[in-house]
Amino acid sequence: MTFEEIKNLDEQYVMHSYGRFPVAIDRGEGATLWDVDGKEYIDFTAGIGVASLGHGDQGWLEAVTRQAAKLAHISNLFYTEPYAKAAEKLCTRTGMSNVMFGNSGAEANEAMIKLARKWSFDRYGKGRGTVITLRNSFHGRTITTLAATGQDKFHDYFFPFTEGFRYASANDMDSLEEVAGHDVCAVMVELIQGEGGVLPLDREFVEKAADLCAKRDWLFLVDEVQTGVGRTGSLFAFQQYGIQPDAVSFAKGIAGGLPFGGVMANERCQDVFTPGTHGTTFGGNPIAAAAACHVLDRMDGAFLAQVTEKGDYLRAQVEELALPCLGKTRGMGLMTGVEVKEGWTNRDLAAKLIKNGLLVLTAGPGLRFLPPLTITQEEMDKGLAILKETLG
Ligand SMILES: *Cc1c(COP(=O)(O)O)cnc(C)c1O
Questions:
Q1: Which among 311, 136, 137, 316 has a CA at the least distance from the CA of 234?
Q2: 334 in Cβ contact with 374 (< 8 Å)
Q3: Which atom of ligand 1 is found nearest the CA of 251?
Q4: Which of 18, 109, 190 to mutate to test the pocket of ligand 1 (most atoms within 8 A of CB)?
């Protein structure tokens, strides 16, 4: 099909909930993509941080097809090997105790919120279900995770929202103490606010917030849906913050392109979910779990060190270009935010870059780069050249 044919079908039959760019991607290899007309693009998006090993990775493909040929799905009523192995790999590499699998980031956060509320209910009974989240956060699109998201623009249309969320300002302990109360059971944060603009939390704030949680007998919940699975140069970002959260949610990059996610708990809250208290039909699906096992095996120390190196290179190069419309860069590993200066808008810049062959994302008022973690030097340099040509 031609681009126009695909677009017309899509516009007629798909609900208009996305502002799409005028490109139909057909296939990919590594961090390079081709559209249906054969035009080449460098991918600084990885499908919003999902294709962590790049497109068409041979090892990933083998892991997925091997499992698909054996058993595609069987439900949570039975044991499967990829499921148990994926859980083991996650726990042994993070110091967490156990895992509940789901299929997406919002669902992982929903499970993490349920975990915190039941944990508190089991100890204290009703009336202690409030979760404090941060302003400018993003936690998902379900009614509850929208309520957890600390941005007013997400709190519209879908009334009534789930009760029991209060918002504190990031990197501001006074603000956190201000919204504290006897009804609180947990604090939930992204260590780098992704959708909000790639805004890292200060180490000191994170340590103090975790201390406050311990002191008040709250859980410290970390949403690593975007920062997790190698994205920031460690398997999870919390490992660079010197803390051990009570629960960690993950999704996006975990299965290298298949829908998968979940929440890990430490020993404090590992026994909260009992039979019948939480579940999902697809969660832990064998194909996605086999993909996750492969992704986790590939992310050894050398792989993660390269993520850090490539990220540092990319940010240094973007700053060196000193493009008139772009300001400072932020981020860790291959999660990069770029400031867009006054007089330009991120959406316009992204559209121009995409037109010229570089796929990028927006975040908050800035641009965001989340390339596949396997991006090569050559691909990064091609992307930087397009950036220079287009915005120079
Ligand atoms: C993307 C994202 C989510 C939502 O994940 P979905 O898979 O889209 O439901 C939640 N939290 C963070 C930090 C995210 O980046």
A1: 311
A2: no
A3: 7
A4: 109
Segment 363-377, tens digit of pLDDT: 999 999 999 999 999
CA of 105 from ligand 1 middle (Å) equals 4
Query: What is the band of 243 on the pLDDT scale with cuts at 50, 70, 90?
Result: very high
| DSSP 8-state code for residue 22 | S
Ligand 1 pocket member 118 (CB < 6 A): no
d(CA 345, CA 342): 8
Amino acid (one-letter) located at 99: V
The pLDDT of residue 32 is 98
Instruction: Please count the CA atoms within 13 angstroms of the CA of 122 that sit on its side-chain side.
Output: 15
> Does residue 149 line the site of ligand 1, with CB under 6 A?
no
pLDDT of 264-296, one tens digit each?
999 999 999 999 999 999 999 999 999 999 999
CA 137, 373, 386, 33 torsion-angle sign = negative
* Ligand 1 binding pocket includes 195 (Cβ within 6 Å): yes
**Separation between Cα atoms, residue 345 and residue 360, nearest integer Å:** 14
Kind of pairing between the strands at 247-250 and 261-265: antiparallel
Query: What residue type is 90 in one-letter code?
Result: L
Dihedral (Cα; 129, 134, 138, 139), 10-degree rounding: -20
Q: How far apart are CA 336 and CA 348, in angstroms?
A: 19
Closest CA to 364 of 187, 153, 191, 186: 153
44 lines ligand 1 (CB under 6 A): no
pTM over 0.70: yes
| Residue of the CA atom closest to atom 11 of ligand 1 | 139
> Token pair for residue 103?
């299929």
Tell how far the Cα of 21 is from the centroid of ligand 1, in angstroms: 20
Domains of the chain in start order, with CATH, are: 3-56+302-391 (3.90.1150.10), 71-298 (3.40.640.10)
258 Cα–ligand 1 center, Å: 14
Q: Which amino acid is at 22?
A: P
Cα separation of 141 and 139, whole Å?
7
